[in-house]
């Protein structure tokens, strides 16, 4: 049940912000501070989420094969690889590291 | 002038590449304990990848539904700003806006903004949106159904797909020192608070890095102009 509540709330909220952008008169969100905050919030969230999902399991900090996968993704990004290649590199290197017993 | 076919080709490229990664989402979500119906509902109704991965990650970590949804929502707020730019660029008719809104995401915005004319932007937005929506939902379903066949998703390294997606979305946003400082503080807060706060809450606290850095910058700027006088 909890999962359905989370899905319902997320779906409604995410749709409403998308729609708001299209409906709101341009002036309302044009304030420089609001724009900068909107650009920086995803940066903070994505950074925190990347770190957590790479270096933790069930509320404990861990260093495992995912770190190698993340490094591979970062290397692919530096080499300007396409989106799918970045994800594939992370998955493949993580799997390889686990197979080698990391 | 850019030929319509060139716009369609660009749009298809983005739509197909990103659409296929719905498979990773389906597998990840199944690994997090969601059932097929729940997973497909997320891709059909939420349709903004980072929010979906965030929600599933938070639920898997044992977060309560509201903190999990809050994290996904904050990630989705950037779409409002995409919509703001797109509404001027595409000049979407009022009646079509509720439909077009569902496709306002990173990729459709990126393709539309890259076009030289309104006509090209409209084609780019529509083709990217349609391709991505169809493929993302199809591959989500395949991933959700295939998760069991894949077996231990961790052995295949699929638990690295979520963070890799986040990193790929984050990398182009890290342009200025401010961006990097915010990201650095958010990482420290997210990891540092993880062992001491309930699941899902550290990410929300980490989001405060954004207003905190802006506030601090404003203060420094104020002090500097004060010293100039």
Task: Give a structural overview.
The complex is a heterodimer of chains A (102) and B (229). Chain A is mainly alpha-helical and 102 residues long. Helix content of chain A is 75%, strand content 4%. Chain A contains 4 helices and 2 strands. The longest helix of chain A has 24 residues, at 32-55. Chain A is extended, with a radius of gyration of 19 Å. Chain B is globular, with a radius of gyration of 20 Å. The model of chain B has no long low-confidence stretch (mean pLDDT 89). Chains A and B meet through helix 1, helix 2, strand 2, helix 3 and helix 4 of A and helix 1, helix 3, helix 4, helix 5 and helix 6 of B.
Question: Strand content of the residues of chain B, in percent?
Answer: under 5%
Give the ordered list of helices and strands of chain A. HHEEHH
Poorly predicted residue ranges of chain A: none
> What is the terminal separation of chain B in angstroms?
51 Å
* Largest two-chain interface: A-B, 73 and 96 residues
Helix content of chain A: over 70%
Strand arrangement across the biggest beta sheet of chain A: 1-2
**Rg estimate of chain B, integer Å:** 20 Å
- Beta-strand content estimate of chain A: under 5%
Quote the average pLDDT of chain B. 89
Helical/strand content category of chain B: mainly alpha
- The overall average pLDDT of chain A, rounded, is 90
Q: Quick one: how many beta strands of chain A? A: 2
Keywords for this entry:
heterodimer, A: 102 residues, two-stranded antiparallel ribbon, 4 helices, 75% helix, extended, B: 229 residues, mainly alpha, 13 helices, 76% helix, transmembrane helix (chain A)
Write the SSE topology.
The complex is a heterodimer of chains A (102) and B (229).
Chain A: H1 2-23, H2 32-55, E1 56-57, E2 60-61, H3 65-78, H4 83-99
Antiparallel strand pairs in A: 1-2
Helix pairs in contact in A: 3-4
Chain B: H1 4-20, H2 22-31, H3 36-45, H4 49-60, H5 65-76, H6 78-90, H7 97-101, H8 106-113, H9 118-150, H10 161-170, H11 177-193, H12 201-207, H13 209-228
Helix pairs in contact in B: 1-9, 2-3, 2-4, 2-9, 3-9, 4-5, 4-10, 6-8, 8-9, 11-12, 11-13
């Amino acid at each position: 049940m909890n999962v359905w509540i989370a899905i319902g709330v997320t779906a409604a909220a995410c749709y409403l912000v998308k729609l708001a952008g299209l409906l709101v008169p341009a002036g309302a969100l044009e304030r420089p501070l609001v724009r900068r905050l909107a650009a920086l919030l995803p940066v903070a969230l994505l950074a925190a989420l990347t770190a957590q999902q790479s270096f933790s399991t069930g509320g404990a900090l861990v260093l495992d094969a995912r770190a190698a996968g993340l490094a591979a993704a970062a290397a692919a990004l530096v080499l300007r690889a396409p989106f799918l290649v970045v994800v594939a590199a992370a998955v493949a290197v993580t799997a390889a590291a686990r197979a080698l017993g990391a | 002038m850019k030929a319509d076919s060139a716009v369609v080709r660009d749009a298809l490229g983005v739509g197909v590449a990103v659409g296929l990664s719905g498979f990773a989402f389906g597998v990840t979500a199944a690994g997090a304990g969601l059932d097929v119906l729940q997973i497909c509902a997320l891709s059909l109704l939420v349709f903004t990848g980072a929010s979906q991965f965030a929600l599933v990650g938070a639920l898997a970590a044992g977060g309560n539904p509201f903190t999990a949804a809050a994290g996904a929502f904050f990630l989705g707020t950037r779409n409002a700003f995409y919509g703001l730019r797109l509404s001027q660029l595409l000049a979407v008719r009022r009646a079509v806006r509720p439909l077009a809104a569902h496709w306002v995401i990173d990729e459709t915005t990126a393709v539309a903004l890259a076009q030289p004319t309104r006509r090209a932007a409209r084609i780019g937005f529509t083709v990217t949106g349609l391709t991505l929506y169809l493929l993302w939902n199809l591959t989500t379903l395949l991933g959700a159904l295939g998760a069991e066949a894949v077996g231990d998703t961790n052995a295949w390294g699929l638990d690295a797909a979520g963070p890799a997606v986040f990193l790929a979305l984050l990398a182009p946003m890290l342009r200025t020192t401010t961006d990097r400082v915010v990201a650095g503080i958010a990482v420290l807060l997210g990891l540092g608070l993880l062992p001491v706060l309930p699941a899902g809450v550290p990410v929300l606290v980490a989001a405060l890095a954004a207003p905190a850095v802006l506030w601090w910058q404003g203060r420094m700027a104020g002090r500097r102009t004060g010293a100039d006088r």
